[in-house]
């Protein structure tokens, strides 16, 4: 694997390999010395054109546990407003000698452009591009589900037959897109729930059931319910009347949470708007995997860095 | 050194209607037609197997000068036009300064005359500075030496319905036409590509078909209401073709254009986020391409116009959102039209002469262009080899910019020679140097 740009074109075998390596990485994290020498002498650049402290420190921790040198390059705001092009930034990183670049960018497709332009020869990991994809988030979500379901016997398994309901701003969510492709590839059945205004206008080709009614979706008894974050900027753009109405119709409140099966898993990619898309009771319950997702994120990112940067990246 | 006084005898060419003839070009006009014409004193061009077409006319070209000379100049744009088989281009108004005064349109006209490759006919802005707030001095531009008849804020939509109404009414005073860039601005904020299944997957903000169609519907009704003339730029959706078809059936005085790229390419090219395929209006679905071709074939769409939009490398060598909209198209237009609608059996060469020459000249009220190839007509002639085929490459581009979506594609046809008012601008498929054109040409408007 040379780059990790999306989950759309990730095969089931590659995905399971990545999840299994992440299991090994998770084992490392329980040792006394939580560090591997694998990427000693390699340089990982965290190239963040958008603020995301959570994702950046997760990648930073992952790279450091593999003994890589880490450079954080924060280029807040678009490359255009900053006056330096993505091309110049990429060529600068190439000149510095970056072996891997973790890129977060507000423009959909920017990681793919970086990977195919010839500006830089490093392995590229997409850490979230616009409203396109966020593959490591989906991988850590799949990893979290698999661990909850199969515990120590997770290795080698997919998510066949698992029902996952994703709720919220599907239109703008790269998390929803990456999860849809990956979970489906792993055999799960995905339902998406949102106000009609927060679905893409045409979802032909999306392997998901679509519903506008969260109560129906809850009553269907999903194994997993994943709540997406509602961004502040959606509030004033006529996607829905106001946050109270959103919460009433599409929020996982206490009453809806109580109707879920006791074995259901409640997920959220964070950061949460408590009381808006998810109630505190749901977020802090035993069903919630919010903090496990954060911990698993480091293992997944270690696995991705390992696969891309150790040995001969040109293979497979 | 040759000059405009050179006489050319074109031997055994095939006209658009299939008949064979020689053409003698002299003194800027077609002097004789017929077989076995005398070649005395004339440079003979063997046109066996070649089509002789009326010089092509592009109603929609961005020449970028004044203001954006790093992308194109009137000279380089004229050269790109000539090598593409054009003898006239209408220069869009979004220069800097904007072509919104008599002074600027006269400057563009003069620079076109100095370049000498094609007739450069300036388009005037509808509103001052393209700002969509106040009408520009349309009358002054109309009565200037540039004799502007086409007015457009292209790049922006005249979205204010009252301003659009007034513009349509006002240009009736001098037989003008408003060429509208139909794009409802609120429905297309931050739009990046056609809105549909692919934009949903790629996470690129959608440019919905309804944003084009709703403006066209409004404008044809306004044109009907005030009894004026509307031209719809770069129609790109199946629904828009339907609206225009309805309007024409109703007797509304509307004309419409399609670009070569919308006749050939689809949104699927966006999948790799290669910004060469970023254009406004965006590439659409296969169904839209088919509807445009059918509309061109049945006359709903009157013309093909290139929307030639040069951009420097840095405007395309970047992430999709940051890239500029637009493609160069003059050099490839005739080949793309052949590939999309001639080789597919929808149009014959007479139709091509109509949609790429006669009709755009008529819409733009440019009497010297788009004329039938008959004795006495200005010698604007393009010789074209439709049997040729080539891999389109950088060497085929004669303008300053290389943002062509066709690079590395195999395209049919080849422009062999072009005569602009009797002056050869292209011979043996090669653009002639400025010095070979014989200096300044006479003013085109007396």
From TrEMBL, chain A:
Catalysis: reaction(s): carbamoyl phosphate + L-aspartate = N-carbamoyl-L-aspartate + phosphate + H(+)
Superkingdom per UniProt: Bacteria
Entries under Pfam families matching the protein: OTCace (PF00185), OTCace_N (PF02729)
GO molecular function: aspartate carbamoyltransferase activity
Domain Aspartate/ornithine carbamoyltransferase Asp/Orn-binding positions: 160-308
Protein residues bound to carbamoyl phosphate: 54-55, 104, 134, 137, 270-271
Pathway the protein contributes to: Pyrimidine metabolism; UMP biosynthesis via de novo pathway; (S)-dihydroorotate from bicarbonate: step 2/3
Transport among keywords: no
Keywords of this entry: Pyrimidine biosynthesis, Transferase
Subunit structure: Heterododecamer (2C3:3R2) of six catalytic PyrB chains organized as two trimers (C3), and six regulatory PyrI chains organized as three dimers (R2).
PANTHER family from the UniProt entry: ASPARTATE CARBAMOYLTRANSFERASE, ORNITHINE CARBAMOYLTRANSFERASE, MITOCHONDRIAL
Protein name: Aspartate carbamoyltransferase
Gene it is expressed from: pyrB
Automatic annotation (TrEMBL), chain B:
Catalyzed reaction equations: (S)-dihydroorotate + H2O = N-carbamoyl-L-aspartate + H(+)
UniProtKB keywords: Hydrolase, Metal-binding, Pyrimidine biosynthesis, Zinc
Molecular function as annotated in GO: dihydroorotase activity
Dihydroorotase catalytic domain mapped to chain residues: 51-237
Pathway: Pyrimidine metabolism; UMP biosynthesis via de novo pathway; (S)-dihydroorotate from bicarbonate: step 3/3
EC assignment: 3.5.2.3
Catalytic residues of the enzyme: 307
Cofactor: how bound: Binds 2 Zn(2+) ions per subunit.
CDD domains: DHOase_IIa
Coiled-coil segments on the chain, per record: none
Chain sites annotated for binding Zn(2+) 1: 60, 62, 154, 307
InterPro entries found in the cross-reference section: DHOase, DHOase/Allantoinase_Hydrolase, DHOase_cat, Dihydroorotase_CS, Metal-dep_hydrolase_composite, Metal_Hydrolase
Cofactor(s) recorded in Swiss-Prot or TrEMBL: Zn(2+)
Pfam families the record matches: DHOase
Residues the entry annotates as binding Zn(2+) 2: 154, 181, 234
UniProt xrefs under HAMAP family: PyrC_classI_B
Entry similarity comment: Belongs to the metallo-dependent hydrolases superfamily. DHOase family. Class I DHOase subfamily.
Name of this protein: Dihydroorotase
Species, as recorded: Cryobacterium algoricola
């Amino acid at each position: 694997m040379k780059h990790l740009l999306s989950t759309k074109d990730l095969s089931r075998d590659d995905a399971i390999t990545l999840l299994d390596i992440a299991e090994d990485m998770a084992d490392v994290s329980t040792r006394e010395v939580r560090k591997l020498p694998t990427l000693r002498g390699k340089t990982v650049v965290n190239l963040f054109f958008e603020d995301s402290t959570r994702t950046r420190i997760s990648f930073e921790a992952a790279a450091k546990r593999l003994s890589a040198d880490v450079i954080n390059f924060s280029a807040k705001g678009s490359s255009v407003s900053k006056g330096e092009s993505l091309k110049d930034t990429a060529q600068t990183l190439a000149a510095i000698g970056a072996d891997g670049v973790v890129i977060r960018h507000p423009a959909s497709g920017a990681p793919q452009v970086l990977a195919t332009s010839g500006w830089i020869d490093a392995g590229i990991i997409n850490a979230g591009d616009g409203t396109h994809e966020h593959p490591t988030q989906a991988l850590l979500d799949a990893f979290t589900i698999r661990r909850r379901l199969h515990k120590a016997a997770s290795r080698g398994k997919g998510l066949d037959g698992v029902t996952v309901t994703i709720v919220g701003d599907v239109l703008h969510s790269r998390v929803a897109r990456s999860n849809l492709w990956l979970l489906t590839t792993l055999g799960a059945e995905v339902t998406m729930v949102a106000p009609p205004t927060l679905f893409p206008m045409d979802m032909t080709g999306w392997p998901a059931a679509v519903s506008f009614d969260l109560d129906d979706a809850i009553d269907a008894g999903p194994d997993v319910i994943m709540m997406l974050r509602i961004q502040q900027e959606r509030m004033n753009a006529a996607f829905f009347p106001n946050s109270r109405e959103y919460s009433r119709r599409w929020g996982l409140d206490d009453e809806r949470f109580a109707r879920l099966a006791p074995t259901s898993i409640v997920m959220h990619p964070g950061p949460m708007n408590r009381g808006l898309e998810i109630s505190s009771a749901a977020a802090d319950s035993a069903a919630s995997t919010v903090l496990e997702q954060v911990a698993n994120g480091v293992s997944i990112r270690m696995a991705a860095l390992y696969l891309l940067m150790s040995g001969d990246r040109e293979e497979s | 050194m040759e000059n405009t006084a050179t006489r050319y005898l074109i031997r055994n060419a095939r006209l658009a209607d299939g008949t064979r003839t020689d053409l003698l070009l002299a003194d800027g006009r077609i002097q004789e037609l017929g077989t076995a014409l005398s070649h005395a004193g004339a440079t003979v061009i063997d046109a066996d197997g070649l089509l002789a077409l009326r010089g092509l006319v592009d109603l929609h070209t961005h020449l970028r000068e004044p203001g954006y000379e790093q992308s194109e100049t009137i000279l380089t744009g004229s050269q790109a036009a000539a090598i593409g088989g054009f003898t006239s281009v209408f220069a869009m108004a979004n220069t800097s300064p904007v072509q919104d005064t008599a002074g600027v349109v006269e400057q563009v006209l003069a620079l076109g005359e100095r370049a000498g490759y094609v007739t450069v006919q300036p388009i005037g802005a509808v509103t001052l500075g393209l700002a969509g707030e106040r009408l520009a001095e349309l009358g002054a531009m109309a009565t200037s030496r540039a004799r502007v008849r086409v007015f457009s804020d292209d790049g922006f939509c005249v979205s204010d319905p009252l301003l659009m109404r007034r513009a349509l009414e006002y240009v009736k005073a001098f037989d003008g036409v408003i060429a509208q860039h139909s794009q409802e601005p609120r429905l297309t904020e931050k739009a990046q590509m056609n809105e549909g299944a692919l934009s949903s997957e790629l996470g690129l903000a959608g440019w919905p078909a309804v944003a084009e169609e709703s403006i066209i519907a409004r404008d044809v009704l306004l044109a009907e209401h005030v009894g004026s003339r509307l031209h719809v730029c770069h129609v790109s959706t199946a629904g828009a073709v339907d609206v225009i078809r309805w309007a024409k059936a109703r007797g509304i005085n509307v004309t419409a254009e399609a670009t070569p790229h919308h006749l050939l390419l689809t949104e699927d090219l966006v999948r790799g986020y290669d910004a060469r395929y970023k254009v406004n209006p965006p590439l659409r679905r296969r169904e839209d391409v088919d509807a445009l071709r059918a509309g061109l074939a049945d006359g709903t769409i009157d013309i093909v116009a290139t929307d030639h939009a040069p951009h420097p490398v840095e405007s395309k060598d970047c992430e999709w959102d940051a890239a500029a909209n637009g493609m160069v198209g003059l050099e490839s237009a005739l080949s793309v039209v052949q590939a999309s609608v001639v080789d597919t059996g929808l149009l014959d060469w007479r139709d091509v002469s109509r949609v790429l020459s006669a009709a755009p000249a008529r819409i733009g009220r440019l009497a010297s262009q788009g004329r039938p190839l008959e004795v006495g007509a200005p010698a604007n002639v393009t010789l074209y080899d439709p049997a040729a085929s080539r891999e389109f490459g950088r060497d085929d581009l004669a303008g300053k910019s290389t943002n062509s979506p066709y690079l590395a594609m195999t395209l049919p046809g080849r422009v062999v020679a072009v005569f602009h008012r009797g002056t050869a601008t292209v011979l043996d498929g090669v653009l002639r140097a400025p010095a070979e054109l014989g200096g300044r040409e006479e003013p085109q408007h007396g």
